[in-house]
Amino acid sequence: MEDNAMKKIIIAAIAIVATLILSVSCTKQSLSEKQAETIDEGKVFTAVIEQDLTKTTLSDALKVHWENGDRICINGTAEYTATPQIPATKATFSPVKEEVVEEGKYWAIYPASLFMNKGCNFFPEIQEYKEGSLNTPMYAESLSKELSFKNICGVLHFALTGSIKVKSIAVKALYENVCGQFSVSYDIKSGILDIDQPGPNDEWKTVTLDCGNGVQLDSEVATDFYISLPPQLYTRGMTITVTDINDMVFEKTTVVDITIERNCVYDLVWSLDIPVNLALANFFQGLSEDQAALAAATDEATKANSELNPEKFFLPRIHTWENALAAIKAIDRNLAKLESEVNKDTPQWRQQEGELQFFRALLYFELFRTYGQAPIVNDGYQKPHPTGEVFKMITQVLKELMEGKLLPFQYESDKTITLDEGIEMTRPTYFAAEALMARACLYASSSLFGIDVSKQESIKYCEEIINSGHYALLENYSELWENSAFSNKELIFGVHFTTPSSAYNGIHPTEHLKKSFESGDIRLAATIGTTDVGLILNKPLAEVLPVFRYAEILLICAEAKEDVQPINQLRQRAGLAPAAAFSQDYIERERLYELAFEGHRFWDARRWKKAGKFFETIEGVQRQWNDSFNFYPVPQE
Q1: What pLDDT is stored for residue 67 in this prediction?
Q2: CB 176, CB 258: distance < 8 Å
Q3: Following DSSP, what letter does each residue of 513-544 receive, concatenated?
């Protein structure tokens, strides 16, 4: 998320024996040397690997021979490109340009970019991730046309497991250069190779492995990453930083000197799992951004400077799948740890169990209504389970939570939880679980989901919340969005962003929405403002995410019971005359006005199967709705 302050997980510094590196499971392997013979046949060089080896030979499973397009630089002037032969231990190298290599002493470097990019030998600051491979630098020197390539660097091998999607891995030394300019000294007779670097340069102390669009880790099977480092003594070690696609940062810092030897591989085994609090912070931040994007896909809003074609309905990209699944995995790990504890059934244990189960059910509900399916832990999250199974799991978790009284009705103190810097939320209560159950049953009663659930199943949970006396409507609708927005008697469960999200930048309410409010409805002014540049959103939703509030419970109850009285409570507060009788039109309009921009309109229109009607024309532009949009497609990794 571009606007989030970067999140950090600082792993406690670890002491390491100098001959190893980074973990007790670290081992040191030997990199095979690449033997190449160059034969001058005009301007074509033929490179042959004398043994059945590879450029890296890190293991039997990792065999990378010459590849089409491999380039070497000879004598710092001529660049040659490879055409692999059969077997791939052989390749012919042809000049990229019409250049002449003078006879005499030859030296060559691989890849050619190490010299050609800067006009000198230069270790790059950015190394590119390639699945199952790396281009470790090599050097050869000879008085004849026969060259024997030797590895210049040592290699860090990261065997990573976990639930994150890796965007980059950075290695930073405290004093020494890990990239930048270097020179090579080579004794042809002995075959001894050494490199020399200039004095420390702050710009050359960090090297980064760029993983492009991200590499998804697996919780069980390690994914391999490789970074080449200059061979030398690293005084007081180094810091390893792994960043995921949401800018979550994991750090591991060494505290002793570390020696990296040329032609050796050093293993780091590391499990990268996001803690529950940060996984939830990611989820709720993403949920807020998704709500803004979906508002612009409905009749609520338009988005300024949008590149999307307004004449076609679109499904904006949302974060739900990856963020919810990452949080579910984190919660499942914590639940497993809780179950293994000896001292169960203490008040603290029960509350922690209840909070984790509540969030688990909430996350699965988001997957349920967005995709109509979701993966579960029983089969290692490998395949999505159908709608009915997911709904059954949600309700089962919530019923066990409520029947076991795992969450209190209210908190006398510690009413909020800090998820991350800039993000806090109210602690979930028993009534928050009931609110989730009421909403889930209402959604599931729609024929869209294809399961046999009556909307009347929501009534019990709504009435318990209403009759509890813990919640009530504020007298003035505008008060909801003032300083007490995060701590008032109407909020059942919500999230507060002390650093406002920019997701709502450029989101403008539609004239259609503004004109559809009834005359005298005070909710209009609290929702939409008018400026010289057009309509703006008055609700501070970039700062407050009201996940459940009492007004929604009244609306669920009204819809499930087909009762006008709960609706009239909201209309009275809005300064409107009471409705004479319940109608589907009233519930649809009241949900739009009362809950505008709070993340309901898109989903309501779908479950009522009226998205094509509501979103057909927005600001005079006809839109094309397709029923295939009723559910988001499950992302294919």
Answers
A1: 79
A2: no
A3: HHHHSPTT-THHHHHEEEETTEEEE-S-TTTE
Q: What is the pLDDT of residues 511-568, one digit of tens each?
A: 999 999 999 999 999 999 999 888 999 998 988 899 999 999 999 999 999 999 999 9
User: In the predicted model, is pLDDT for residue 270 greater than 70?
Assistant: yes
Return the amino acid letter for 596. Answer: A
Q: Choose among 116, 124, 114, 237: nearest CA to 179.
A: 124
Query: 307 pLDDT band (50/70/90 cuts)?
Result: very low
Cα–Cα nearest to 227, from 135, 132, 152, 140: 135
Residue 266 φ then ψ, to 5°? -120, 125
What pLDDT band is residue 602 in, cutting at 50, 70 and 90? very high
Phi, psi dihedrals of residue 126, rounded to the nearest 5°: -115, 125
Complete edge-to-edge strand list for the sheet that includes strand 223-229: 28-30, 264-272, 154-162, 223-229
| SS3 state at 365 | helix
DSSP assignment of 476-527 equals SGGGGGSTTTTSSTTEEEEEEESS--STTTTEEE-HHHHHHSPTT-THHHHH
Question: 279 in helix, strand or coil?
Answer: helix
Strand-pair partners of 194: 185
pLDDT in tens, 439-482: 999 999 999 999 999 999 999 999 999 999 999 999 999 888 77
**Rg of the chain in Å (alpha carbons):** 31
Separation of alpha carbons 93 and 45, rounded Å: 5
DSSP count for the chain of H helices, then E strands: 14, 36
Residue 47 φ/ψ, nearest 5 degrees? -105, 130
Tokens read off for 222: 């390690």
| Tokens 């001959």, located at residue | 19
Asked if 561 and 553 touch (Cβ cutoff 8 Å), the reply is no
Q: Within 13 Å of residue 162, how many CA atoms lie on the same side as its CB? A: 21
Does 306 score more than 80 pLDDT? no
pLDDT beyond 90 at 421: no
| CB atoms closer than 10 angstroms to residue 558 | 24
**pLDDT above 60 (res 12):** no
User: In one letter, which amino acid is 616?
Assistant: E
Question: Where are any strands of DSSP class E within 203-279?
Answer: 206-216, 223-229, 232-234, 238-244, 248-254, 258-260, 264-272
Distance CA 556, CA 466 (A): 11
Contact 544, 425 (CB under 8 A): no
| Residue whose pair of structure tokens reads 């960090």 in the numeric block | 206
Structure-token pair, residue 317:
């990209």
Least confident window among 1-10, 119-128, 148-157, 539-548: 1-10
pTM: 0.73
Helices (H), 296-386: 320-340, 347-371
User: In the chain, pLDDT over 90 holds for what percent of residues?
Assistant: 47
Give whole-number Cα distances, 250 to 12, 90, 286, 293, in Å.
Answer: 11, 41, 20, 29
User: CA 632 → CA 89, 103, 111, 253, 367, distances in Å?
Assistant: 47, 64, 44, 41, 10
What's the pLDDT score for residue 558?
98
Q: Lowest mean pLDDT: which of 79-88, 120-129, 611-620? A: 79-88
Q: Where are the alpha helices (DSSP H) in 238-311?
A: 276-295
| Phi/psi of residue 618, nearest 5 degrees | -125, 120
- Residue labelled with tokens 């967005």: 370
